[in-house]
Amino acid sequence: MHVTVEDAERSYLAVIKGEPPKAEELPRPTECPRCRTLNLPEAVYCLKCGTPLKLEEMVEEYKQPALLQELVERLHRLEEELRLLRK
Fold this sequence. Notes:
Helix content: 40-55%
Strand order of the largest sheet: 1-2
Radius of gyration: 26 Å
Number of domains: 2
Strand content: under 5%
Order of helices and strands: HEEH
């Protein structure tokens, strides 16, 4: 656990004011939706099966094949236009 100066100051001021110290919630492991392996909270991909653990990573992973397909289609269109221009 990492404690910053701000954390210590906040706790100190709470004690001075007579407030109960606030218990900070520790980061929890992230469970893989595919294989149910528990991963470190900061993990982006499952350490066992490689499945993306964060929604943003899942979206990006699914976008990549579509983007690649779009680029291939554009390349084919450009090749066709170039072929027509050479005639």
